[in-house]
UniProtKB/TrEMBL annotation:
<dbReference type="InterPro" id="IPR002937">
    <property type="entry name" value="Amino_oxidase"/>
</dbReference>
<dbReference type="Pfam" id="PF01593">
    <property type="entry name" value="Amino_oxidase"/>
</dbReference>
<dbReference type="InterPro" id="IPR036188">
    <property type="entry name" value="FAD/NAD-bd_sf"/>
</dbReference>
<dbReference type="InterPro" id="IPR050464">
    <property type="entry name" value="Zeta_carotene_desat/Oxidored"/>
</dbReference>
<feature type="domain" description="Amine oxidase">
    <location>
        <begin position="390"/>
        <end position="430"/>
    </location>
</feature>
<dbReference type="InterPro" id="IPR017830">
    <property type="entry name" value="SQase_HpnE"/>
</dbReference>
<keyword id="KW-0560">Oxidoreductase</keyword>
<dbReference type="InterPro" id="IPR001613">
    <property type="entry name" value="Flavin_amine_oxidase"/>
</dbReference>
<dbReference type="GO" id="GO:0016491">
    <property type="term" value="F:oxidoreductase activity"/>
</dbReference>
<protein>
    <submittedName>
        <fullName>Squalene-associated FAD-dependent desaturase</fullName>
    </submittedName>
</protein>
<feature type="domain" description="Amine oxidase">
    <location>
        <begin position="15"/>
        <end position="301"/>
    </location>
</feature>
Amino acid sequence: MNPKPEIAVIGAGWAGLAAAAYLAPHCRLTLFEAGKVAGGRARGVAHGEFKELDNGQHLLIGAYRTVFRLLRRVGESPDALFLREPLHWHLADGFQFCCPQKLPAPLHLLWAVLRGKNADWAQKTALLRQMAALQRWHKRQPPDQSIASWLDEQQVGEDWRAQFWRPMVLGALNTPLETASLRVLCHVLADGVWASRDAGDFYIAKRNLSDTLAAPVLRYLAQHGAKYRPNCRIAQVQAASGKVQADGQTFDAAVFAVAPYHLAPLLPEHLGDAVRQAVQQLSYHAITTVYLRYPQPLHLPAVLTGFAHRPTQWLLDRGRLQHPNEAAAIISTSDLVAESSLHTDGKPDWAATAHQDLLQLNPHLPPPEAQQTITEKRATVASTVNRRLPDMADLNAARIWLAGDWLHERYPATLEAAVQTGERAAQQCLDALAHTSGTR
C-alpha cells in the first residue's frame, strides 16, 4: 500500500485554506502562513475598542455555493454563521427596491424594479431594457469591452450610472466602469441573480471572517493530522526530480496560494516565466472600511444602505450584527476617490467623510465615540478588459499548482473565486499524483 503523499500548501488565505481542507483527508499536509493569523486579505482584526472587525470582503451572496460547501465540509452551518437578507437595493439618495422571496428568477427582479421607489415608470423600464440588452450581449459572446463603453453604446446617462451601474460594478468587481470587464460582470450576474432567486441573497457574517472560516478550517485540518505553520515565510522553492523543496523539507507536490505580488520570489528560478509576466501586468484597487461607534442608536433604513452621490458607497448596519450603535462605511476603489474626501495634512480623512455621510441619514448624530479606519491598499486585482490567465503548464509539470482569487477564469477577485481556485488546484494536484503513482 502506497503511503499518503506529502503536500505543502503555502499561504493560508481563503484559497490556501480551501486547498488545504480539500487535500487533508488524502495526504500528509503542511500549511505554511507568513503572517500570524490565517485568512489573508479577508480576515478578522482587532483594533483598540473594536474586537470584531474585518479587513476584507464584507458581503457574500447566495451564489457563493463553493464557500458554503466548504463551511459545511468543516462542520459549520452557513445559516448559523451569517445574517441572511433578501436581495435589496437601497440608495438613500436614489433608487430603492427589494426582491420578493416567492417569485422565481428572473421574475423576482422584474417585479422588484417595477415596484421600486424614487424612479418613474420610464426610468424603470429603461433600466429593464438595459438589463435585457446585457443578457443578449452575454449570449452572443462578442469580444470583451469595458462596461463604460457598453453603457455609452446603450446611451445610458449619468443618472442611471450613478443610481445603479456604478455602485453595482464597484460592489461586484471593485473596478471602475471605465476599465471594468463587461464579460466578467456578465459571468457574475449569470451565475448569480439571473440564475435563481436566492443566488442574490445577502449573507453577512455575524462574527469576523477569521472566526467564520479560518478557525473552522484550521480545526478541521488538525483533526486530519495536518501541520499548520504560522509565522513561517517561505523563501524560494526548489523543484527537481519530481519533488518540491520548501523550508528545508521535501514534498511530493505543492500548492502556492499567496497574493500575486508575493509570488515571483517564491517560484523556482527556472520555472514560471509566464506567471511572472502576468503578475507584472496586474493592477490593484484599494478598499477602505471605516468602523464607527456612537453614544446613541443609529437609524439606518436597511442592513446595507448605499449612496449614489457620496464618497461612501455602502453603510453596513452593525447593530443588526450584535454590535450596538455601530456602522461600517465601505469605500470601494478608495485609491481613486480619495480626492473627493475630506483631507487632513494632505491625506484622506475617511472617518470624517463617513461621519458626514451618516449625518445624511441621522442629522442629529453626535461625533463618534470610537472610530477605526482600515485600508487594504491592494484589496483586489482589478477585473480589467480581456485579462487572461497565465500558462502554468511548466509549474504543473514540476508538481506545483497555483491558487488565488486572481486566477479565476470567470469571476472577479472574490472569496468565491479564491475558494474555487483553491479546490481546483488541490484536485489537479491529487489527480496528477494518482496518475504518476498508477504508472509506476
